[in-house]
Automatic annotation (TrEMBL):
The active site is at D292. GO terms for biological process: regulation of ubiquinone biosynthetic process; ubiquinone biosynthetic process. SUPFAM superfamilies: Protein kinase-like (PK-like). PANTHER family: CHAPERONE-ACTIVITY OF BC1 COMPLEX CABC1 -RELATED, PROTEIN ACTIVITY OF BC1 COMPLEX KINASE 7, CHLOROPLASTIC. One of its GO terms (cellular component) is plasma membrane. Pathway: Cofactor biosynthesis; ubiquinone biosynthesis [regulation]. It comes from Thalassotalea euphylliae. Is probably a protein kinase regulator of UbiI activity which is involved in aerobic coenzyme Q (ubiquinone) biosynthesis. Keywords: ATP-binding, Cell inner membrane, Cell membrane, Kinase, Membrane, Nucleotide-binding, Transferase, Transmembrane, Transmembrane helix, Ubiquinone, Ubiquinone biosynthesis. ATP binds at L127, A128, S129, A130, S131, I132, A133, Q134, V135, K153. Signal peptide: none annotated. This is Probable protein kinase UbiB. Belongs to the protein kinase superfamily. ADCK protein kinase family.
Length: 547
């Protein structure tokens, strides 16, 4: 089975002329001979560019490779611009599997009796079909007898085995790329495939997606003024399982349907700015962000065209940041706004993203060399995501370790920026984000932040305060005991040193007497020999008996 899959992949690569991408000098003679022996597998797309042929090959290889291509499209630090743009065109739409098969899987997970009791109007024709799962519509009867329109997301049967098999083949080809391509080591193909493996295997657990969606929804239902800018559908966790997800059905306009939004006279500028705001809110306020916001997962609620809001689905991939990462990122962004490259370099060293022994002066110069030409353009024309890509590329030259949370952040930022400028090409993402970031940094480092931290810790101190006197007494008592023990230990060490000193003295005297006795032997002075020998024995006994 694996051999057939490998043959199909090789056949697809050759029929799309991808072997032309490998440098001829790097290919061994026996590989060239094997290529000639497969003469019937010729390039059928010679009229297309390298990037187009690469995308078509990915599409031909099916769902797992399509998903991989989508991920690669966001790694602009690894791919040439033309390839990244082509891969961004990949659509996660594949032929659906049988509705009857989906129903059987749902009934097996939820339970046939529970399904027939609580669900009706199940539509066997899927609403949408993607590489890993497809969704069907139905009506859920809640405990109060109300009808709720829902969608049921069902994993493709046997998809886990298919994914693992294809990833193993990908790893094999990644090894070939790393060995033969001149830039193979920099591209780190094996690491990229392993990163994809972790991401896609996480998506196979719909319980994880349900939990992520519930958390994201809770973050945007706290009653704050901006919370209504993002809506996350309700998850009905009582009916969710590893391979089935039940959630509220939403009616929105796909974010890519720009013409439809314009016909409705939607406020595109406000919508684009809110998209940026929602992203930075998730990252810097909540430390929990939707990391797969491609056009298929984002919709617009334009029921009030002057006050449009965002709708997010498919929370299978999320990113998180700790406090240190958030602070360093925010300060990095603000430093970039102000073109303070020295601070950017110092922040990378302080955060541990690059080795501590990195020369800040050299790193600053490298960042300036990359970024100054970019900043010669008007801010509105500068790609925020591309600046981040260039920064990470520069940092890698200084042995920056791959930070998974930053890779997800970079990917999401590219998505958001792309969506924002698709909706409103004049969007000045820098101007939109700068006040938000500056305010966040002030909130984290100002007086209010100090009082906020004190307030957050009050329950802890309220609990521990009555114990403080006892803790102080215990500390002082244990300190006194430790001091007495230390004095005793020092006395013992001093006595031990005195004993060793006496032993050494007696040993030296014994050795001296022994030498004198030995020297007197040739002169046959038996009296001296006997006396000094006896003295040597006495000193030796004294040295051994000293305690």
């Amino acid at each position: 089975m694996r051999s057939l899959r490998i043959y199909r992949i090789i056949k697809t690569f050759l029929q799309h002329g991808l072997d032309d991408l490998l440098p001829s000098k790097a290919i061994p003679w026996y590989v060239k001979l094997a290529r000639l022996s497969l003469f019937w597998l010729y390039n059928k797309h010679s009229d297309k560019s390298d990037a187009q042929r690469f995308r078509l090959a990915i599409e031909a290889l099916g769902p797992v490779f399509i998903k991989f291509g989508q991920m690669l499209s966001t790694r602009r630090d690894l791919l040439p611009q033309a390839f990244a743009e082509e891969l961004a065109l990949l659509q996660d739409q594949v032929p659906p599997f049988s509705g009857e098969q989906a129903l059987k899987q749902i009934e097996k997970s939820i339970g046939r009796e529970a399904f027939t009791t609580h669900f009706k109007n199940f539509e066997r024709e899927p609403l949408a079909s993607a590489s890993i799962a497809q969704v069907h519509t139905a009506t859920l009867l809640d405990d109060d007898g109300n009808d709720i329109e829902v969608v049921l997301k069902v994993l493709r049967p046997g998809i886990e085995k298919t994914i693992i098999a294809d990833i193993n083949v990908m790893l094999m080809f990644a090894g070939i790329v790393a060995k033969w391509l001149p830039d193979g080591k920099r591209l780190r193909p094996k690491e990229v495939v392993n990163e994809y493996k972790k991401t896609i295997l996480d998506e196979l657990d719909l319980n994880r997606e349900a939990a992520n969606a519930i958390q994201l929804k809770r973050n945007f239902t706290q009653g704050r003024d901006t919370d209504h800018h993002l809506y996350v559908p309700e998850i009905y966790s009582s009916y969710c399982h590893k391979n089935v997800l039940v959630m509220e059905r939403i009616y929105g306009i796909g974010v890519g349907e720009v013409a439809t939004l314009q016909e409705l006279d939607c406020n595109m500028k406000l919508l684009a700015e809110r998209g940026v705001e929602v992203f930075f809110t998730q990252v810097f306020r909540d430390s929990f962000f939707h990391a797969d916001m491609h056009p298929g997962n984002v919709f617009v609620n334009a029921s009030n065209p002057s006050d449009p809001t965002w709708i997010a689905i498919d929370c299978g991939i999320v990113g998180t940041l700790n406090k240190e990462d958030k602070r360093y990122l925010a300060e990095n962004f603000v430093a970039f706004f102000n073109r303070d490259y020295r601070k950017v370099a110092q922040l990378h060293v302080d955060s541990g993203w690059v080795p501590r022994d990195t020369s800040v002066d050299e790193f600053e110069f490298a960042i300036r060399t990359v970024c100054e030409p970019i900043f010669n353009k008007p801010l509105a024309e500068i790609s925020f995501g591309q600046v981040l890509v260039n920064l990470f590329n520069t940092a890698r030259r200084f042995n920056m370790e791959v930070q998974p949370q930053l890779v997800l952040l970079q990917k999401t930022l590219l998505y958001i920026e792309g969506l924002g400028r698709q909706l409103y090409p004049q969007l000045d993402l820098w101007q939109t984000a700068k006040p938000f970031l500056e305010n966040w940094v002030k909130e984290q480092m100002g007086v209010s932040a100090v009082f906020g931290k004190i307030k957050d810790n009050l329950p802890f101190w309220n609990e521990k305060l009555p114990e403080v006197p006892d803790l102080v007494y215990d500390f002082l008592h244990s300190g006194k005991q430790a001091h007495l023990q230390q004095i005793e230990l020092l006395t013992q060490i001093k006595q031990h040193q005195q004993v060793k000193s006496r032993q050494l003295t007696y040993s030296i005297l014994a050795a001296g007497a022994m030498i004198t006795s030995a020297l007197s032997l040739p002169a046959q002075n038996w009296l001296v020999t006997s006396v000094t020998g006896a003295i040597a024995v006495l000193f030796a006994i004294k040295a051994l008996s000293t305690r």
